[in-house]
Amino acid sequence: MMEVYYESLRLSQHGWPCGPLSGRIRMIEVYYKIIAISRKVWSVMMEKSNSAPTMKDVAKEAGVALGTVSKVVNGLPVGEPYRIRVEEAIRKLNYQVNSYAQGLKANRTHTAALLIPNTYLPFFASLVYHINLALLKRKYRMLLCSTDYDPGLEQEYVAMAQQNKVDGIIG
Fold first, then answer.
1. Which tens digit of pLDDT belongs to each residue from 38-85?
2. Are 128 and 114 in contact (CB under 8 A)?
3. Alpha carbons 129 and 122: distance in angstroms, whole number
4. Measured between alpha carbons, how far is 99 from 78 in angstroms, rounded to an integer?
5. Interval 86-94 mean pLDDT
6. C-alpha to C-alpha distance for 17 and 9, rounded to whole angstroms
7. At 7, is the pLDDT very low, low, confident or very high (cuts 50, 70, 90)?
8. Fewer CB in 10 Å around end: N or C, the chain?
């Protein structure tokens, strides 16, 4: 009951109807709008992800072997004319190194999963912020998993993190 009152109070401060039921109805409307926007963003992301150039595309564009592109990307020695051609092809195609694929090969992803109960409470939001800063200083990325105090969901996140080959789990 306290949750409904708090949401109603918060909604009334923004000029929306303030009864417990009208507050919940407004929250449901906002929720569905967020879902619709998320679906549009996801579809755009999926379209772009399918058209990303690969190392093979760079090799074809530069007229060199795939191994030569790999050497240039990884900073290994290669003839200067080849390096210049590969770097031009990388710029032209806007090629981005797939760090996930590199992590699979090197058995290190430079990613840590953080499991927390929620991001709604200021304590957890601050905790996430500071852990992320500490990870960034060490060149790590953070995979944030909010469990909503559900032990079953926590186990699912742990399994997912293990499958995605993260280097560590903080929880």
1. 777 776 666 555 578 888 999 999 999 989 998 898 888 999 999 999
2. yes
3. 10
4. 22
5. 91
6. 10
7. very low
8. N
